[in-house]
Amino acid sequence: MIFSQNDVKHYDDFYMSNFNTLKIKSRAKVFYMPENCAELITLLKKFKDKNPIVLGNGSNVLFSSLGVDEPVIYTGKIDTILNLGTLIDVEAGYSTQKLSKFAYERGLSGFEFLIGIPASLGGAICMNAGAHKQTISDYLLSVKIYDKANAKVFNLKKEEMDFSYRHSIIKEKPYVILSAKFDLKKANPDEIKSKMDENLIFRKTRQPNLSLPNAGSVFKNPINCELSAGALIDKCDLRGYSIGDCEIYQNHCNFIINKGNATSADYTNLVFEIYQKVKEKFNIELEPEIIYIGNMSEEEKEKWKILKK
């Protein structure tokens, strides 16, 4: 049932299957849908001591089948975008795939790789998303931040974001991304479109599309290793291996798909088994990219304690 509280729309006991790309059936105790940054900040202040979950497109996350007690704040409606010349100022909830198309339509290059990433801008910046030799930080100028601990808004320059492989300062601090500014480069629209099409073809032939629910890459590629995470998993003869309704994708072993009724326990158990097999065979401890959100069983707690150490 829908309510209105402090002028911010929200739902109680809200099922989030359509708000995570893995399509896990999980229920939020309360689910908020702010319309703008002011409403988002109001909620973050209100729930300062309740560890609210700020949700973008719901990729790269694993919701608990046991539910989420913390307030969930969905940012998908916070999506204003402004363009002047090569400059783009865009809010955190804007879709990365839409952002790729927006840039192309204006003859701007730098976001071609985003066409194949089903994320929100905020999530992409947080994890420094990248593909095809491009990253979200390449043309970034600054990020507008809300600091939950000190209840203030400020800007961080690119150099202050501590970007590295699948990492930014957002993962270390009590920060929430509100918007970001980029300075792209002018290019031939046909060349931009060609690169976007190549990226889409690569994704369709190597990675599962969202008709096969998945949360994106499961593990980070290990540093100082010639083999990718997917190749290591494949060499452990795990291609197509499944637990419950979670299955390692046949065409790329660093993806796990939901065959219909997967639970967070299925996903956790499969991730943990992959981790153990790779460690036993190669003495490499893969690090999950996936973020677990919600109530954990005792078994899940023990496994994620090892996976995230």
Give a summary of the structure in a few sentences.
This protein is of the alpha+beta class and 309 residues long. It has helices at 37-46, 96-105, 121-126, 189-206, 229-235, 264-282, 298-307, and strands at residues 2-5, 8-15, 27-32, 53-55, 61-63, 72-74, 81-84, 87-91, 108-109, 130-131, 134-135, 140-147, 152-157, 175-183, 185-186, 242-243, 246-248, 256-258, 291-293. The protein has 3 domains: 2-74, Uridine Diphospho-n-acetylenolpyruvylglucosamine Reductase, domain 2 (2-Layer Sandwich), CATH 3.30.43.10; 81-204, Uridine Diphospho-n-acetylenolpyruvylglucosamine Reductase, domain 3, CATH 3.30.465; 229-307, UDP-N-acetylenolpyruvoylglucosamine reductase, C-terminal domain (Uridine Diphospho-n-acetylenolpyruvylglucosamine Reductase, domain 1, Alpha-Beta Complex).
Outline the structure in words.
This protein has 309 residues and is an alpha+beta fold. The protein has three domains: 73 residues, Uridine Diphospho-n-acetylenolpyruvylglucosamine Reductase, domain 2 (2-Layer Sandwich); 124 residues, Uridine Diphospho-n-acetylenolpyruvylglucosamine Reductase, domain 3 (2-Layer Sandwich), CATH 3.30.465; 79 residues, Uridine Diphospho-n-acetylenolpyruvylglucosamine Reductase, domain 1. It has seven helices and 19 strands. Strands 1-2-3-6-4 form a five-stranded mixed sheet. The protein has a five-stranded antiparallel sheet with strand order 7-8-14-12-13. Strands 16-17-18 form a three-stranded antiparallel sheet. β17 and β18 form a beta hairpin. α6 packs parallel to α7. The longest helix has 19 residues. It is globular. It starts with a strand and ends with a helix. The N terminus is likely disordered.
